[in-house]
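Researcher: Please translate sequence to structure tokens.
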Amino acid sequence: MKQILISTAALALMSSAVVAHENHAIDMDDAIKSAADTSKVAAFDILAAHVHSKGRIVTFHMTTNGVAGAEKPTATGALGGASVLSYVWPTSLDPSAVGFEGETGILALAVTSHPDFDDTPLYDENGDGDLANDGNDWHSHWVVLAPTEACGAGALAVRDIPEEATPKMPATWPGLPIFIDSPGFTPLFDGPEITVRTAFADAQAIVGASYDGVTSALKVNANVHAPLLCVTDVFDVVSGDLSLPGIVK
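Model: Translation complete:
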């Protein structure tokens, strides 16, 4: 899989201002789309991404060129160096919209799988009565992404929380020293499609926000912090340039 490091210029585009639009009926023609690319792994080759709202409920949707979720990371047997695969919707929303400290980075919804650790301590995704063995099952997170030179020139990481710092976190923060939330929104997979229904306290917070669609790999630092979780590969970006062209209607 071809590695792509996200540039500072792309980050500036990802932070573009929210554009106001009137709410209207859901129309998949509003999706941002990309042509199929047979050189990419089909499960991570994005054909379309779409986000729409209905009151407090906001649905994130992605269409791939293969069976979404069919590819999962290989277990390493340890947290340090563990691999993560993800489907991600970066947005222009301020992180405070879902309960993080404001103005701290790029708020994104991510659907992830990682067999070597479980970061959803409130939920039993596989229904076996054990809350701590579900990391391999696809699950959702809100994350705040930030440029992190320790991950490589122009690369991103899930924003770290320095020792003794106490930034505001959502109520369902799993306690890891990074800007991550485990809200329990269940991702639904149906052939090439992924759908995640989320909820916002402020129904108007999301309307007019911009978004993109990304598939990527991340890796846990061998030292398990500073930084903890780096973006190491970007498999596809539906817009092609991380310009967040989608507008939530």
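Researcher: Any highlights?
Model: The two ends are 33 Å apart (CA to CA).
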